[in-house]
């Protein structure tokens, strides 16, 4: 051991360590999943880099991860022969958190353990989860391709700091050695470890091995002796990438566990769709709809995307070209046979295969959501609450699927008059009145402002339903969504919505008379308001309120409208 230094953890790491140890106690065995998934990532990275430089394999192309326990030393070790880490890598990756938005994330924690442990689940605890069960962690690693004296040892008790030193390490890759806390000795039980690994890691694409002791020859009376067996490392998972297997061979449990590792989520997914596509473009996609929005869904600096594999080789994370941004909540992967192994983000940019895969993905996700909406409305309500506002970016981004996207929308409306967003456009159309041609809606800052708007009076009087929109994106979304199912949308605060086309002759006459009667008042009002208004008119829209301010059909400026409303009341 040489060149030993001590470093302090980044503040956020200290916070994470503190929080994790206290809030993830009931979920403690996840450390195995996290460490095995890191080992598998390290194998993926090695294979990817070796495409250009096969010397990195150091004559050993069989990547695997091994798990062993030592009852005397009180340790459990997870050992891989993946890419390994250099000294700089170790300091960076095992001393800081690289995710953008981390500061904000910790700023959002409430101190309420139940809530925080949910949040931390979506944040992803990764390597640091070791400290849920360990009071001391040693990492011994050497980067593939470096000489054996360039190994590095990292050590920490998970408090404020870690030490780092140079070591000799013959085999490339990383050993993570957890010294178990006194009360966590159950993880020394091989059967327990084995069963956890089977549950969490069956889908991992490389073998996860445990050592099997040999047995001596056994004597059998009146028969042949049972021969001795040799001890050796034995794979305890299937070791084939889940998505390459036949759908009918994969259990829901396996799909769910796989989701947890690709999405870094503690929760189960809401739905998934797994497809092998043959023909012009050949690829496999496995796409998941999560139950909960990740903490960084609205962070513009964060790339959202799926994993890209080419011919089963992992190429990149967050490949954003395979789904449009309004579907950025989708997690999962694509494995293509048509892209080159040396594909880069630039090549993906305008590639025919990318385009075809993307279109296929969009189709499948929209289909999955449509089915969920039809067949499991409760799940769909969960989805809508978490991701509805993202989906509302759809009409602006994806013109060709506008209609399908809009079919998925759910709004509050005057039908139930509650804030619950559960009215689809098809529901609305089904309830349209005889003679009603348009889909009426109102946008406002809050649900109650929408619901109590005087613009609704005439609609309520005539029993015509109005969609009540109060999400921030609604107004912008509606500027890109002008019709649905051949019906125009109409904002009720825009001029020309007095519904007179639906009046009978008698009412029309009465209205004409009222207009005449108020002629001179209108003139006076116009003179008094002068330049402040474009027009003053008698309206038949109101039943209770004396007056209302409206904008012209084509004026989108409701900010102005709001100012005027505020000033006018
Ligand atoms: P994540 O896996 O989400 O990046 P982790 O906390 O699990 O977060 O790991 C942090 C980083 O440490 C990884 O991104 C990787 O660079 C490095 N790392 C962790 N474990 C290994 C390993 N077994 N081999 C190589 N690098 C590793
Ligand atoms: Mg990880």
Termini separation (Å)?
Answer: 78 Å
Beta strand %: 15-25%
Oligomerization category of the chains in this entry = single chain
Biggest sheet architecture: 9 strands, mixed
Per DSSP, the total helix count is 20
Structure notes:
By secondary structure, the chain is of the alpha+beta class. It is 35% helix and 19% strand. The protein is built from 20 helices and 19 strands. It has helices at residues 11-23, 30-50, 87-93, 102-107, 113-123, 130-133, 190-201, 252-263, 345-349, 352-375, 377-391, 394-397, 402-407, 425-430, 447-451, 457-462, 474-478, 505-517, 519-529, 558-568; strands spanning 2-8, 65-70, 75-80, 134-142, 151-156, 161-167, 173-180, 208-212, 232-235, 271-277, 283-289, 306-310, 313-319, 331-336, 412-413, 439-443, 467-469, 483-484, 487-491. Strands 1-6-5-4-7-3-2-8-9 form a 9-stranded mixed sheet. A 5-stranded mixed sheet has the order 10-11-14-12-13, sandwiched between helices. A hairpin with a 2-residue loop joins strand 18 (483-484) and strand 19 (487-491). Helix 1 packs across helix 5 and helix 10 (352-375) crosses helix 11 (377-391). The protein is elongated. The termini are far apart. The model has no long low-confidence stretch (mean pLDDT 90). The structure holds adenosine-5'-diphosphate and magnesium ion (MG). Adenosine-5'-diphosphate binds next to helix 2.
